Amino acid sequence: MKPIKVGLLGLGVVGGGTWKVLNQNADEIARRAGRRIEVAAVAVRDVAKAKELVGDHIHITTDGMDVVLNPDIDVVVELVGGDTLAKDWVMKAIEQGKHVVTANKALLATHGNEVFAAAQKQNVMVAFEAAVAGGIPIIKAMREGLTANRIQWVAGIINGTTNFILSEMRSQGLSFADALADAQRLGYAEADPTFDIEGVDAAHKLSLLSSLAFGVPVQFDKAHIEGITTLAAEDIAHAERLGYTVKLLGITRAREQGIELRVHPTLVPSESMLANVQGAMNAVMVHGDAVGSTVYYGAGAGELPTASAVVADLVDVARLVDADHDHRVPYLAFQQNAMADTPIMAMDDVQSAYYLRLRVEDRPGVLADIARILADTSISIGSMFQEPAVNDETDIIFLTHEAREGDILNAILKIQTLDFVRSPVTRLRVETL
Amino acid sequence: MKPIKVGLLGLGVVGGGTWKVLNQNADEIARRAGRRIEVAAVAVRDVAKAKELVGDHIHITTDGMDVVLNPDIDVVVELVGGDTLAKDWVMKAIEQGKHVVTANKALLATHGNEVFAAAQKQNVMVAFEAAVAGGIPIIKAMREGLTANRIQWVAGIINGTTNFILSEMRSQGLSFADALADAQRLGYAEADPTFDIEGVDAAHKLSLLSSLAFGVPVQFDKAHIEGITTLAAEDIAHAERLGYTVKLLGITRAREQGIELRVHPTLVPSESMLANVQGAMNAVMVHGDAVGSTVYYGAGAGELPTASAVVADLVDVARLVDADHDHRVPYLAFQQNAMADTPIMAMDDVQSAYYLRLRVEDRPGVLADIARILADTSISIGSMFQEPAVNDETDIIFLTHEAREGDILNAILKIQTLDFVRSPVTRLRVETL
Description:
Number of strands of chain A: 17
CATH superfamily of the largest domain in chain A: Dihydrodipicolinate Reductase, domain 2
CATH topology of the largest domain in chain A: Dihydrodipicolinate Reductase, domain 2
Domain ACT (chains A, B): 355-429
Largest interface: A-B, 63 and 64 residues
Shape of chain A: elongated
Radius of gyration of chain A: 24 Å
GO molecular function (chains A, B): homoserine dehydrogenase activity; metal ion binding; NADP binding
Protein name (chains A, B): Homoserine dehydrogenase
Binding site for NADPH (chains A, B): 105
Helix content of chain A: 25-40%
CATH architecture of the largest domain in chain A: 2-Layer Sandwich
Structural class of chain A: alpha/beta
Cofactor (chains A, B): a metal cation
Oligomer: homodimer
Strand content of chain A: 15-25%
């Protein structure tokens, strides 16, 4: 079969990695794909620098639209990120009847429904394995490997930067600020780490996983997002003593009232698979009614791991480049005409167990008053733990049974009016998985 | 699209599970597949019992050939196991131009090359996700998710029975015999557990994973196989103290001289992902040159988990039932005309680190003599550990650096001629992964 021609938008970390993998493993890939996958054009900002990597035989341009409109190109690989230029190029590529491979979670999380609708109309593929959890083939597992299942929930460590920071905070007892500085020094966090540490990047990815799990449109705008910036070293230490590890999880779960879609720091049992994911690694746990719990673990970012996912998508595209829609896997695992409109639940209605830490004055009656408020708001206490008092103050920690988030917030408001409560209540969610 | 018609051979644990999943999740599956998947005929030993499960509307026969020759059937799902009747039916189904889905690792490990060659000629699919690691979509991950990579090695816990027994031996300090009895009582081991405990089942699966990784024919007959029957509780305890956990691993690795293909008890670092796979669960670690290490974890057996894999295969088949070969994923990940003839290495040439335990008389010069033999056979000692002597005897434990298996065996032969060595040397392999 004749080679498939690729147009590469962006030759940064992932673009450069894609180029390298396609070249280094060209024979191995062709042995699998049954045809060669050749980069025919690249769009970059710096032509001279690009030439050093790709040489003189590849058409290099500074205008992505050149690549998109190039009639020789079968597949456009978008690795520039963002949702302005990238979006124009992706939409134009689709309009031109070209297939698209992208690692752009921000684009798909915010404009995915529009992108997939256009692609469906033009009978082209849009593949995005690299957009979630880097080299781990989690999109493929969910779109194709677990098709027998009613997926019940997905919980994932899908941001390496925050997992690195949390691993450092735990193992070294560092504060968030110090661990972030370490992460930046070692290249695990960007100069502006906002998207990572505030949970936005994880929420982008989670929105896609939620659609794949439940066959609903991508709804990043409905996600509840909390980052790790306010997490205190002492809560990580308390959690550890209680047998838990704090991880930034993306969780999406089907409930009777709708779908949970939430990113937040979470206490998970220290012996669980997710608790043992260290450093910048990623892992996604998917629970299906037939298969039970499955876990997918690997590098969630980086040049070659992400390129591994991009190139796997290219092999899929190469195989079905001239096939029709019926022969292809639907973009979001479910046929476009079979998507559901199950609502995303308001965070107040989500049920979870909670970790609450209260700094209180050490005097009689404190526990009684707090316990009364929890009882009155229907919150059942699973266990309790009190630190020895220092300077007449002490920390009380409660682990609650499952409760409605709205009820917990209500209880916290009441507790904070008590005159012996010395600082805002720390509230973290607990998941047994 | 019109429904795809399935003929089910066998309605035991996995067959029954497949029936249940196809029915319980029929709508969810159709939302994904774009068409319904309907069981049109089943072959069973006990028609009356089958009727209780599938009702009166499905054609039930006691002769598998009836199903295979039924012109209404698009796909034959073989879930009877073994390689006599099952083989006849699978080969006949292929000859009839029907697609095949099977969970039969014994059949594919011993006759896979013949089956795939016939299927290639007849332009039909043979899907076998359920044959390895139950519900974990490991075949899909390796055939499609990691196509960008030169796979370097695969190491897996791919037999739940032995992992359950080893977990019990470790956590309860049980002997192999007692742990096996527990496993049988709890339904994790069969009445005749030979295939599991001798490592044959794991080797069947490993042979398939090796072909998927390296694009070589299935070569179960060349696998080196050691089970767990001679494993002593004290070695598990010693390993634990040294920071290792003993697991039955299937390992296949590309080396310059060829491919390693081996199943044996292995010491792995206790903090590694594989060490923490408990009970009857399975996990497979795949290392690719681009992606690095990835892990796939889940239930490796059982009614519904295995059915999850069977039905996922059916959805794949449903999608490409009328496509041609170019649009489909090759049986063993690599195109049939691009298979390699890389040799499987003799076990003597395999390099590994080793755990050696020697029961010796407690007298001066013992260590010097042993250390001399190891040095003379080019074996470098990583660490050493000696138990306090009891009744003038003691255990010495060596962890060696990587050495050639042949050299280790040679050293052991020499050591066993020393008059102060009181019992056969225990030798286990150590992998850092």
